[in-house]
Structure of Staygreen family protein:
Amino acid sequence: MSSLNTEKLSVEFGSGTTPTAPIIPRRYTLTHSDITAELFLTICSDYAYGEFTHMRDEVLGEWLNADEIYLFHVSLMLDGEFGPNTRNIVFRRELPLALEAIRYGDRKLFILNPILDICPIIVNFNSADPYYNSIENWGYFSEYDITKS
């Protein structure tokens, strides 16, 4: 896993979303450049569909509220170019970096709402192949907070 280079992270807040509000709806689209290793995080009330590529290697996340408890839901597309096995390996290797980028890029929200740091991160690995299609708990954002390292 690479460690987050904050100088290569660009963050954009979309219409109706600020660095501090709202929590719901708040959706994250994280994309990257293979050439420059830059990360691009869009935080908005909806996903940044215009940022999707044919590779479908974006990381999508959103805050959900179930019975007054927040959780963070991540969705990853394993089907596509290179097949689900390769994409599964790459996503699992790079997901900690993606979660660090989301946590760091939206750090003002976490400062104002410290409860979010201890809400579960649920990752949905989406695939038509049942072997790869899974839902997993990936811990808490407190584990991905690089400002406390």
About this structure: Residues 8-148 form a domain with the Severin fold (CATH 3.40.20). The beta strands are 9-13, 27-32, 39-44, 59-66, 69-77, 120-126, 134-140. The chain has one domain: 8-148.
